[in-house]
Amino acid sequence: MSLRLKLFILIGGAVFFATSGVTAVALWREVIRGQELLAREGVALASTAAAASAHWLHTDGVEPGGEEALPSVMDRLLRSAPLDRAWVVDRNGKVLACASKTGEPCPDGLQLTEFQAADWALQALMRLVRPEGIVASAPVLRGGEVVGAVRVDFNHEEVIGSARDLALGASVLGLFWIAMGLMMAVIFISRVTQPLVHLVEAAGHLAEEQGVQLDVPEERETADLVRAFNRMSSRLEERRAENQRLIAELEERVEQKTREVLKADRLATLGGIAAGFAHEIGNSLNVIRGYAAVAERELPADHANRPDVAAIRRETQRAAELIERFLVFARARASHAFAQPVEAVLREAVEVVGPAAVQARVERVVEVEPHLPLVVIDAGLLRQAFLNLCVNAVQAMAAGGGGTLRASLRREGSQVVAEIRDTGPGLAPETARRVFEPFFTTKAEGTGLGLAIVRQAAEAHGGSVEVVSAPGQGAAFRLRLPMAVLEAPQTGAVEGSE
Description:
Elements: H1 3-53, E1 57-58, E2 61-62, H2 66-80, E3 83-90, E4 95-100, H3 121-126, E5 135-142, E6 145-154, H4 156-207, H5 220-298, H6 306-330, E7 338-340, H7 343-352, H8 354-359, E8 362-368, E9 375-377, H9 379-398, E10 403-412, E11 415-422, H10 429-434, H11 450-460, E12 464-469, E13 475-482
Helix pairs in contact: 1-2, 1-4, 4-5, 5-6, 7-9, 9-11
């Protein structure tokens, strides 16, 4: 059952019962009032007949001639009004004379009363469905004493005739107001349910991802509902637009990442092929270098080809070192990383560059903060990174006639920071931004892989590396490593190799 039908039934029922109730009450009151008027009229008729009957009645009975006179009085009374019966009784209630249109006998034993009170309300209504008239009476007085009574009984049609007319009129009037009420109910329900119908249709459009804004009706309650719907529709439209934008960005990022993954896959394949080629070329270079060394050793010192053979051996040695560095950068090897101090690894790297530092007039200083936490590291890989930084620092200061190499270890939050600082010429901003890129170098004979290996080692340990430098102010390389969590010691593979 729809809401509209429910409202129609509710309002229609309320109108029907209210109108019927009002009509019934009005009809009830009018029926009672009409019967009271009939009773009063009957008393008046009976009083007239009682005055005429008083000449023939006394306390002991009927005067001579009264037996003929009283029936005549009752007949005249019966013809003068719409009565069914009229009769006179003595003071004991015995019928003395009776006139009846219906042939019914007149009852005995009624008490003498001056006026019979109106019936109770329900009895007045019962007369509408049962053939029962209204009995009225008046006392017969003689010498100031009650000697009898005259009674009249209105016929049933007289009692209900006016009530029937009244009921018909009230019914017509009630039906009119019920029809008016139903018409107003239809209009009211239409005004109430029409915005709801629009809301349902708009909700269907929302399900189809269409933003909808409804006109606000005049009714306050419905207006509040429509405003709430409009706000919800606006928010949904905003969310839908935001979701579409995010989906578009996500699709773009997925497409970009897919391209990057494909590119990385191709590069990884090329890197593997290049590493294989480099390994084979390195083997060939080692053979050439060996034969060149043998030839140089067997040639006399003053032989004309000896310098050429020495050049071959020197260049093959340089090429072999370049390939070895490339293989260190390109290959990955399994390692045994565990929690240990970093100090020993750093001191070892600084110690290894000692001869080169002495030759370049470079002073070495190592500063270690006490009570440093352990770090999960691969000592060999980290030693190679420290060594590359120290070698670069010594070479940078050698051209300027010496300087100071300062290696330090300190704790910053949950990290251990290893810093290699030199007093060399420093780096230009553009060089500092690209210094960790593979094969980028500012040296005439450099390979551009040393600092790339340093970054690879830092990232393999879950850390990072950065450079702080300015032209003429030296350079400081900071390697940041996360300290070890002793409750969960780590072992695993670390990318990179020497």
